[in-house]
Amino acid sequence: MVLYTGSFCVDLLAVTTALVAVAYAYFKWTYQYWKRQNVPYIEPRIPFGSLRNPFAESGGEQIMEFYKEAKSKGWKYCGIYSVLTPTLLIVDLDLIKLVLSKDFQYFTDRGAYVNERDDPVGCHLFAIGGSKWRNLRAKLTPTFTSGKLKSMFQTLVDCGLVLEKYIEQNVTTNKEPVDIKNILACFSTDVIGSCAFGLNCNSFKDPNSAFRKYGNKIFSISKLRGLQMMIVTSFPSMGKVLGIRQVPKDVADFFTKVVQDTVTYREKNNVMRKDFLQLLIDLRRDDEAGHENKGDGNSLSMEEMVAQSFVFFAAGFETSASTTTFALFELATHPEIQDRVRAEINEVLAQHDNQISYDSINDMKYLGQVIDETMRLRSVARLLRRVCNKDYKVPGEDLVIEKGTRVIVSIRGTQYDEEYWENPQEFNPDRFSEEKKKNMNQYTHMPFGQGPRACIGERFGLMQVKVGLTCLLRKFKVNLSEKTKLPLKMSASSVVASAEGGIWLNFEKI
Ligand code: HEM
After folding, report:
1. Which of 271, 329, 330, 483 is the most buried (most CB within 10 A)?
2. Which of 377, 386, 448 to mutate to test the pocket of ligand 1 (most atoms within 8 A of CB)?
3. C-alpha distances out from residue 351 to 344, 345, 346, 359, 360, Å
């Protein structure tokens, strides 16, 4: 080894000092980006940028604070830094509409990290971009038509009845409060497991089943995973060299095997089922008859089928379970609203032979309002992300959003904005009466996103939440246990909003 000063320690110190100086200069230079663009910005700090410690505090909640700050200063947008990545937070509703919908062609992608070589399961509809996304989205959209949803409805009800029975047993055998999110995660795992893979997950009988284990792993962010995500956000090429994956290997292997085995079984035994997987199998069959797979989203390979089944599972189970959990939290703390929803459920069911059906659920208007208001106050997704794919001159502003710039919208920011919502902290489902909804600006309430990249599973997700709530509320009264830590604090280690310490409820049979 060559020594420059004759002492290894002095050499090491000199090299370390030089590296720290270069890194410091790089941070400082990068943190001038918004100043150079003449865009107002939130002051960054090394090493996390505008965010305080993202390992300790939820990023979505912090960005809501930036939204408020920008709004109070009259800014229509402002620059922030996610660690080293300059990101434009847009606040003005007209600009939000341009980015998400009207000028969508400039903002088609989310800029998610994809690594096709090491992580094909991570190359799903949520993550991919460009023409591949466009083709695949067009292919998968018919999966969620009313007809297809109706054909899956009975599966949801069957899972709902298992949920109902589980709580009933709990009420009679032990009077302890329950961590409701865990229970609803079993329900939604059963629903999505059945609808996305055609499998009976039996989560209530076996809470440690592989589906629950890997499902939990998708949404928890360990320190190592958090660090990897920071690296791939700022340096995606380095992520690829390091072989960093979005979907952990054991999770990907598990879902790959499940899909491959199920497809092989169905093809061999000519089994057809009314579920998402069957629709993907049919798409693949049509493709095989039509043209070869070119990896352009026009046709489906087995790997792509696995990736899409995975994202339906991943995007579907946690979001729906958390939304239902928060709805029950609000109903437990607002007993008069709980009574009103229950009265509606009973009345509507009485008109439908006491059957929970696609039509009866759709007739429960006030229940829909309760869910809308829950998703305003406690949306499980807190941000919408896009990346600009060609320079975009913002109409009426002295601003060009440069190609490659990340753009975010704070769902919570607009949903708590006093300009659009009176007493925004208050839970009030009457805000979503049919009359009021007519005059609502849809960009003030975006729990499922907006525009061509909005949630593809919105109707399925809502159906699941409604079935879960109907099954529980028609049979039980819920109230909040003292075990729930108040005020609710959102966990920093979960991708979707989740209360630290859980939400604990007492159920009482009616
Ligand atoms: C209450 C339940 C749900 C909530 C709150 C929710 C929320 C969201 C949000 C906020 C987005 C991003 C939209 C945007 O960027 O504009 C999204 C995208 C997505 N969601 Fe959902 N979701 C739910 C249920 C589901 C279900 C049940 C599925 C599938 C079965 C699903 C599949 C997806 C997919 C595939 C995308 C990406 C769409 C694309 O990029 O084309 N979601 N969801």
Report:
1. 329
2. 448
3. 11, 10, 9, 11, 8
